[in-house]
Amino acid sequence: MLTILFDGIAYGMLLFVLACGLAVTLGLMNLVNLAHGSFAMAGGYITVILVNHLGVPFFASLPLAFLASAAIGFIFERTLYVHVYRKSHLDQVLFTIGLVFMSIASIDYIMGSGQVFVQVPSVLQGKFDVLGISIGRYRLLIIVTCGLLTVALQFILTYTRFGSRLRAAVDDSRVARGLGINVNRIFAYTFAFGSGLAGLGGALGAEILGLDPTFPLKFMIYFLIVVTVGGTSSITGPFLASLVLGIGDVAGKYYAPTLGSFVIYTIMIVVLILRPQGLFARAASR
Amino acid sequence: MPAVLETISLVKQYNGITAADDVSLKIEKGARHALIGPNGAGKTTLINLLTGVSRPTSGSILLDGEDISKLSTHKRAKRGVVRTFQINQLFNDLTPLETIGLAVSERRGQGLDWWRIVGSRRDLMSEVVEILERFHLTDVIDRRTAVLPYGKQRLLEIAVAIACRPRVLLLDEPAAGVPEDERHEILAVVGALPNDVSVLLIEHDMDLVFSFADRISVLVNGALLTEGTPEEVAGDARVKAVYLGEELADV
Amino acid sequence: MIPSPAAVHTATEWLATRARWHPLEMAFWLAAFAAIYLLPDRHLILTEIAWLGLFALSLDLILGYAGIISLGHAAFFGVGAYTAALLAKHEIINEPAVALLVSGFAAMALGFVTSFLVLRGSDLTRLMVTLGVALVLRELANRYGWLTGGADGLQGVSIKPVLGMFRFDMFGHTGYAYCLAVLFILFVIARRVVNSPFGLSLLSVKSNPLRASAIGISVDARLIAIYTVAAGYAGIAGALLAQTTAFASLEVFSFDRSADLLLILIIGGAGYLYGGLIGAIIFKFMQDYLSALTPQYWPFWIGLVLVVIVLVGRDRMMSWAAPIRLIAERLNWRALARQIIASTKKV
What we know:
Mean pLDDT of chain C: 87
Helix content of chain A: over 70%
Number of strands of chain A: 2
Order of helices and strands of chain C: HHHHHHHHHHHHHHHH
Distance between the termini of chain C: 12 Å
Strand content of chain A: under 5%
Largest interface: B-C, 54 and 43 residues
Number of helices of chain A: 11
Strand content of chain C: under 5%
Number of strands of chain C: 0
Oligomer: heterotrimer
Mean pLDDT of chain A: 84
Shape of chain A: globular
């Protein structure tokens, strides 16, 4: 049972890394980006190309996937997303769904429609036993990496100037602008960083979640659940929500396979009814 | 005289702020009652509490002696508690004709009619056009509200409230933002309100307040400072201090 | 004060004009019915356009008139489809028209129950909740494969002739006439509803719910009512699909369906009832054309159309797309305005 807990934590932390970029862009720019999963997919496929076809070592390809996705995110933000910030949520939904469809079709065209696998180095394969818990090496890597990332994120937000500017801009972008904070530049960097994290998550997650062109649609609902249940006003909210979702999903699939994802969706609906601002968000004054 | 709308020790607290502090206010039948006070005193909060837009932390609200504190906004409106908004809250995509038509048909209980074409009832149309003429809106009845000049929008804001045939009308700064040369229309319309409608007027324009009201309440920091006839309030030193104190702070 | 009779007359006229059948509308429906006889080799695609248009019309009722964004409208479509297919397969109801009504009611029931979920919350919450409901239904349909046929779909469905007389054929002749008749009847009802006081109250709720409740409108009750009706319409559209193809599968609940539907309504324009129908026509022909070009990568073009539409701006597109209607209306308004000014001057 502890193995399930371990697997669930790994899954949850992976979800967090994947989804936190979405939480920040929603909280910061009030932007509903249903195409967030596309950046994750990009990171995954880039890793596949680097490792499988170009022989780049796995551990080196992870930061490269991050950088590549961040770069793509930066370009898209400056050229496309910037036009939809002021538009209604419906317009943003339509726009980003359009991007998702385009990305899925493009990947389908370039890489084919089948599932792809990353050649994981042998040091990460297999599992070992600790105190009766079966620890998968790959999942251990995920927990360690994502854990370090989360700590780093919290550190950046709390102790750096960029972090405090970001928090100010999330809290109230109009006032932040009035204080001289260059909110647009923060948007760009944050979006890029969030996309990079998504790409890294896609790279890490290819092995566990399965990577194929329909990835953005398959996991869109999970990212949205993390963001709406966890709220967008902090990091801890989505973090906790991701863990709950990850453990719940793994445990659910193990103990009650007939119910499957059905339980997750129902929980999401219930949470949204009772607390539309999310389980963990402080009551928003907006 | 019996009170038509009354609050008993109304308190509203949120985020550590006391927006309404033990407010006991009585609006008498047929009153021309004004509520004044410095900015941020909690006047709009009080109207929100009276109309059900926000719920009190404690205390109760009585309409003709009946407790309406738990009723929703639309139920209170149906019972005759109607308000105007300080910042226009209109139907931007509808025309004044449609807006007033909607208010009148709702009031007549025809709002759920899903088969009849709007405008096919002669008696209803008669009443609608009468209101539009009264509020000098006939020259713009077919224009989208969003494109109307501000003064017309303000008139429409009051017209919609009147179309509901309120028992108690709560006017939240009806002259706010209206240019000088259009103010007289607002003043005239407010002055011509039917006698059986009890009116609570919130205003900063002291000319309007003193020409309109027979009773004035002063709200400061969420609490009622004093209450009385216009002469009493105008002569009250504390009221002067509250307003003058503000001006001195500005200097 | 007694209102001037001339002003009353003009106001009444203006409202009546708003609701009157425009010559373009009549031409549209005449053409649609004429196609039964004049375009027999296109009946298959016209059948699809008919139920797709009805599906889009149902979304217009909640999106264009009540302002509710839904990413899961396929939930009701799917319920209607499976109900009709199951009724036919197990020969519970053999008359397709009756089965159609029952399927509609089944979808309405679901609509009523889920309407409470979309009353509160922001646009994003509504998006998620509606998406969640559709996903839950898809999961359920998947799990209960013994009932629904699971991933393979419901096989062995055969539809009896409509009204005992008109057999469904593989050229879509009966199918098109049947779907068009249903679409027309439901359209006329919807048209009455949106032009009624109830319809006007919906527009007011969409425009400013705070103001609406301040004049005594129960916002929740109105939204529940229109959401339920729209769900019924969507269910009937799904039932038409099931009956004309004698098949139902999981993809009736899919996200793709809900997303395509949004696109269709956006292309045609929301809020004037014909947007869904026009959008369905454009979408279907676009799909036909682009699938011939690049059969597998059709989603790319859909995506591109969505992106371009949003970037260009939906309002701007609406103003290009309906020049005739706008001009016609503007002529009326100016004439009416002149009359009203003249009549008030007499008083």
